[in-house]
Amino acid sequence: MDLIEYVNVLRRRWVSILTLAILGAAAGYGWASTVTPTYQASSQVFVSVNSGDTVNDLVQGSTFTQNLVQSYTRLVATPAVLAPVINDLSLETTPKKLAKSVQANTPLNTVIVEISVTDSTPSRAAEIANAIADQLPKTVTGLSPSRSGTTTSGEAVVSIRTIADATVPDFAISPNKKLRTVLGFVLGAVAGVALALTRRLLNTRVRGEGDLTAITDVPLIGAIPRWGGAETERISLIKRPHSSRSESYRRLRSNLDFVSRRGLSATSVVVTSSIPQEGKTTTAVNLAVALAELGDRVLLIDADLRRPSIARATGLEGTIGLSTVLIGKVGLTEAVQKWGDTTLDVLTSGEIPPNPLHLIDSPTMEELIVEAQVEYDFLVVDSPPLLSVVDAAVISHQCDGPLIVAAAGKTKRKELASAVESLRVAGVTPVGMVLTRADLDEGRNYNYYTSPEAERGLINMAAGRLKTVFSRRSREA
Fold it and tell me: Can you tell me the distance from the alpha carbon of 60 to that of 66, in angstroms, rounded to the nearest whole number?
C-alpha cells in the first residue's frame, strides 16, 4: 500500500479508531481510580564539621563533610535510624518495609541531605520524614567514637541540624490520573490504527482502482459508485437519469467508444464477472440503456441460461428468449422484445434448458450473434461468472470480447486474477474492467444537471447519430 491508501484506510476506520481511543482513555482513568493514592513529604538536614580557623583546616573540613554526607545519605534508610522512628511513632511496620518508602539524596556539591517519605496518609508521611530528620543526628552520635565525637572545647565534631521540616502534602504524587488517561487514549488510538491497518493487510478483497492495476493489466474503463437503493431502482438511467451513478454508466459508454477508436472493436461485449453478486447484470442493463440514449440500435441479450435475471430486472416476459431461438422454435426477430420508448431491444433467456453449455457452444449461437451484429449497432450480452462455468469464455469468442465486472469490498484479488487468467488461457482478450461499489471522491460524484438548452443539444446530437446510422444502412443496402 502507498501513503494515500494508508490515509484512506484510516479515514474509513476513523470511527473504530476513535472508539478504541475513548475506551483506552476510560480504561486509563479507571485504572488510576483503583490505585491507592500516595503522598510524599520531604525534610532537609544540614551537615557541618567544627574545624579550625585556618584556611587549610576549612578546606579539609569541607572535604571531610562532603564525604560524610554520602555516608549519612545511605544511613537514613537503615534499621539504625528507622527502628527508633517506628518505636517513637508506634508504626505497624518493620524497618525493611519502611525503607521501601524512604528516599535520601544529596544535591551535587552540597552538604544537605534531603529525606523523602511516601505514604498513603499525607500527615503520616510528614511525621515520618520529620522523625527521621530528628533521629539521624542521634544515630550518628551513637555510632561515632566517644573520643572523636567532640572537640577539645567540648563541641561536637559533626553537627546535623534540620533546616526544613516536612509539611503535610496537599496533592498525591501517584496515581497521575491525567497522565494515565492521556496514555490510555494514545494507546487506544494506536491499537485502533494497528487494527485498521492489520485488517486491511489481511483483507484480500479488491478495495479500489489501485488493487485492480496491481492484479492485472486489463484497463479499467469504468467505476460505478455504491448504490443503497432497492433492486428495482438499480437501473439508474431509467429511474434516476440525472444522478452521479447514471453519469458513471455514460462515462463507461464513452470509454467503450474510445476503445473502438483505438482499433479494438467493442460493438459486441460480453459482461461477466469472477463470482456471482458483483453487479454484472445491473452493469449490462445500464450500459445497454446508455448506448441506446444516443439513438443507436442496441440489443441486450441474457445469455445466463443457468440463473437468468434480465427479465426480472427489465420486467419483460422471460419464457421466450435465447434458449427458444437456439432450439429453433422461433426466430430472433420474434423473440426480441422492445423495452420502453427507446432503441433498446431485449432478448431474455427463455426457459432454462437442461444443457446450457451445449446451446451456448453451438453453431446456432454463432449464427445468432452474426445476425444480431447485422441488425444492431451494439450487442450487450449478460453471461454467467467466469469461475462458475465456462459459458462466458465461450461467448466471448463469438463477440468482440468480455467486460469484466469486479465489486469493491466483495471480489477477492485471487478470484479476479484467476478469472482473468482463465480468459487468457482460452485465448480471449478482455475489452476492459468495470469496478462496481466504488468509493468515488466528491469531484467524481458531481451531480449531473441538464438545462433545457443542454437537453436540446442532446436531442440534436441523437438526431445526428440517427441520420448517420440510416445513411450507412442505405449505402449497405
Answer: 10
Closest to 193 (Cα-Cα) out of 20, 339, 45: 20
End-to-end CA distance of the chain: 57
Q: CATH 3.30.565.10: does it fit domain 209-446?
A: no
Q: Are 318 and 350 in contact (CB under 8 A)?
A: yes
- At the topology level of CATH, where does 39-164 sit? Alpha-Beta Plaits (3.30.70)
The structure's pTM equals 0.59
Identical fold between 39-164 and 209-446: no
Instruction: Give 87-146 pLDDT, tens digit per residue.
Output: 999 999 999 999 999 999 998 888 899 999 999 999 999 999 999 999 999 998 888 654
Break the chain into its structural domains and give their ranges.
3-30+184-202, 39-164, 209-446
Cell of 415: 478470484
How many CA atoms are closer than 13 Å to the CA of 11, on its beta-carbon side?
8
Nine cell digits for residue 219: 484497463
Residue type, 445: N
How do beta strands 298-302 and 112-119 pair?
Answer: unpaired
Instruction: Residue count of the chain, please give it.
Output: 477
d(CA 291, CA 282): 14
Sheet of 401-407, strand order: 220-225, 432-438, 401-407, 268-273, 378-382, 298-302, 344-347, 337-338
